[in-house]
Amino acid sequence: MTRAPVRVRFAPAPTGYLHIGGARTALFNWLFARQQGGELKLRIEDTDAERSKRELIEIIYRALEWLGIDWDGEPVHQSDRAELYREATEKLLASGHAYWCSCTPEEVKARAEARGGKPGYDGHCRDRGLGPGSRHVVRFRTPDEGTTAFDDVIRGHISFENHDLEDFVIVRSNGVPMFLVANAVDDAEMGITHVIRGEDLINVTPKVLLLRQALGIGEVPVFAHLPLIVNERRQKLSKRRDDVSVGDYIERGYLPEAMANYLATLGWGPPDGVEIRPMVEIIELFDLASVNKASAFFDLKKLDHFNGEYIRALTTTEFVNRSTHWVTGGRAAWPAERFDASVFERLAPEVQTRVTKLDEVPSYVAFAFVDTPPFDEDSWQKAMAKNPEQAAAMLDAVIGAYADLPWEAEALMAAIADHGSRLGLPKKQWQAPVRVALTGRTVGLPLGLILEVLGRDETLRRLRAARDRL
Would you call 153 helix, strand, or coil by DSSP? Predict the structure, then answer.
């Protein structure tokens, strides 16, 4: 029998952010679909009314678009499909595969504690013949015997004993269907051929399979459960202790192509070992069966390396355009009217070689757009206060020399070297007092470039201010 063309889906719930794990799942679905010449469908799991807010859904769209993940057709909203889920529930009730239950969570817990052993629901309402009620839920009646099994592309054969599966809720007491029944119905109705999702959902797979079987849904999709993403302590990424929102990384200046490339390496790697490469090549090489089932470590240092490489691969014009968000629009530490695009463009090539994230750009160029350079206590102590007599002598000499020198980097830097040598200072101390006087920091862009950009008058003003402070 010929299987239908590949069709996968990404089905996030609008929680107000797109989780890094969800982004990796979306990417792997997209990679597989594109590599197979298939389709990626986007389905929003918004049966919960609180999650139907448009602004929450837009966050998902924006994050996926930022990553370069597109989808086929219009997004499907589960909040628009309530009638399908109601019909499925009625069918399950009529066939005896589901029943109404009046047990509260507290009652379920109390009975479990009283009997000891395995916690969970005990089938109390299976044969009570209850109907709808104000606090009643609908539960699926799991088989008492046999097994429910499936073959996972990544993890091999997985089997569950049916007697270990409790009668799970498929409709809440407020009438809202659980995602299990919604997924079973939607995957069949949408013609999904492959379900690619996180390993934390392995335990719900037998429930979905039982629902499909009870609803008379035929061919079972191919399942592939991706490894969890963990932090440096090998703990699952958590919003409580980790930066897990894609939005956080957007605001910190990661490039979308770098993030997408890095996410592609979380659980999979190209056969030739070359990890940083164009997405078109990743699509061509991607192999779902080669995904590792071991947990994937989200290594921020490695992500920074990827991002730095992508930043340095930009043209200068691209780098300037990508950096605009961080140096204009009220986000920078200087008044908007002081920003000079031509000055920034002059500094950009040197900045580009030094940053790993775009939110680092302002710290390198702030000296050019403020009246007074930022004060860094550690830098001042190191370059000035530690040897104030030497620093003062160096500043005095440079102030005198800069009064009438040609304002060119080569001549200006030669004067620093000349006077530093005459004063008998170690070579590494020649530039430090001048640099801190002009920028507030001991590290940064080439000092000759800084001098040229500031100009004679502003340079002398800052040098004299620093000398006075000494």
Answer: coil
Please check whether the domain covering 88-171 is classified as CATH 3.30.70.890: no
Contact 323, 358 (CB under 8 A): yes
What percent of the chain has pLDDT above 90? 86
284 has a pLDDT exceeding 50: yes
Provide the 10 A C-beta neighbour count for residue 7: 19
pTM of the model: 0.92
How does pLDDT run across 160-219, given as a tens digit for each residue?
999 999 999 999 999 999 999 999 999 999 999 999 999 999 999 999 999 999 999 988
What pLDDT, in 10s, does the model give residues 357-371?
999 999 999 999 999
The phi and psi torsions of 433 (rounded to 5 degrees) equal -60, -40
Q: Which residues contact residue 354 at a Cβ distance below 8 angstroms, ignoring those fewer than 6 apart?
A: 360, 364, 445
In the chain, ranges of CATH 3.40.50.620 domains: 1-73+227-313
118 is catalytic: no
How long a stretch of residues is the chain? 470
Rg of the chain's alpha carbons, rounded to an integer? 31
C-alpha–C-alpha distance, residues 289 and 268, integer Å: 9
Q: Which of 41, 91, 236, 239 is catalytic?
A: 239
Exposure string of 86-119, with b = 16+ CB inside 10 Å and e = fewer, is eebbeebbeeebbbbbebeeeebeeeeeeeeeee
